[in-house]
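2024-03-11 09:14:02 DEBUG pipeline.ingest accepted 1 chain
2024-03-11 09:14:02 DEBUG pipeline.ingest length=495
2024-03-11 09:14:03 DEBUG pipeline.predict start
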Amino acid sequence: MRRAIDVSMIVETEPSIDPVMPPAPPPPHKEPFGANRPRDDIMFWLRIQPSQFGETAADLFEQITVAVDPAGTHVETYYPEKFFYNGKNTWAVRDVAHLPIKTLVNEAAVVDVPDTELPLYPRDLIRGARHLKEGDGVLLRAGLNQRWLNPGLHPEVIGNVYAGQKTGMTPEAAQWLTSKGIRLCGFDFRSPEDPTNRHELPVHAEMHLNNVLLVEDVANLDQLRQERVLLLTGTPLKARHMDGGLARLVALETESGGGYRPVDLTHVLGPYPQPRAPHRRIELVEDRLQVMRRADFMFFEVGWGGWSDVVGPQYMRFSTQAGTHLVNPFKRVDGEYQPLYAEVMSIPLSRLVAPGALFDLSYIGPRQVISRDDIRQAQALLEPGGWAVLRTDHSDWYRSRPDFLEDSPVLSPEAVDELAGMGAKGIVTDLTQLAPLDRRWELQAALHEHDMLAVEAAWHLWLIRKPTFTVAVLPLNIKDLQTSPAHTFILEHWE
């Protein structure tokens, strides 16, 4: 038996009044797009702005501006109420911050479907779905996206991704799947819709109204060897009111000797347009808490095939330090900052999904320093190469306080040395800062020296009941990104 725990913090979201990054829609936050900005172009908008706290860099991060309905692998939970409820276009009812854990971490059946130019009917699904069980996720494998591998790196081909798709599900096929009580439907083609019904979206309606999470444009299904997998679905930014967005999808195949073989099912995205001057934007140190807690939405209208604003198009902007986030530690060399990995997407999946052990440090109070002795006294059963999960409960107890960041307990370099001596290659912690700003580079240098990653600002670590488990850290899969929000899961194994 398996028990999954989502330890990723929820990020608040709000409409942006004065977006810093383009586009800058006028009040009421709507920007009409003409023929010079087709929908395909809008979907590919992804901008990365290097940023730092303070004139002298106290910490580095990045600001990301991206379409909510992007190119590449993404989730859709629910269209605006206008689509179903007589013209009310308000916030979505179901959002990614409140997706059930059973949807995000669940068994999934890999179902082979014909790679044809004809719509898919129930008979086409039934042939390959004999192993489908009630409540499963479903991965439909047609092999179609091998025709445009990693479309997020090739904006010039996005038109072909849509225009070139000849297959998709009929409403009857979608109804057959929902009758099986599925929780998630992913597929390696761009849209689940039969192209003849694309503008009416009957498959979207059937799936959404039956609480099925859609994952569009899944990658690398041809790399799966087993017909059933454990599927991890993460929206790296776990944001309230966000009804879709970028996803990181990982399938775990069970190995005969125990453990998992992870397979990344996520397309790689690339910045578009490229920044003209890659200078760092300077943020005030006093704004750190807002940078961590918030994502901004920027709404606009787009006319495409007569849809106008039916599907609620929107950009969103967030920091790579928003919520629970991955620290790819930097060291300073001759005044330059060098990360452990040149970019987040180059981190091996075997490092992101690895064994973990609990270090119960819940007796550590605000602003206390975690020492070498504290690590030793925890007597954790850490496997070499695994994640050390440090529980203090700070994120849970103090999240509503204005000194949420400054009151965090911190790690000493000696504690990092001790963890490295135990074989740790990563730290997951509910600390909101690993070290005070005036010692952050010292702490990051210690992590860098020991080849260790870190995840800050997790929460709900008190839900962990087992001393050992599997940790899965799912950052964004974006080229040139050096840090990232990260949806993080704990997988406990029970007899």
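2024-03-11 09:14:41 DEBUG pipeline.report The first helix runs from residue 39 to 43.
2024-03-11 09:14:41 DEBUG pipeline.predict end
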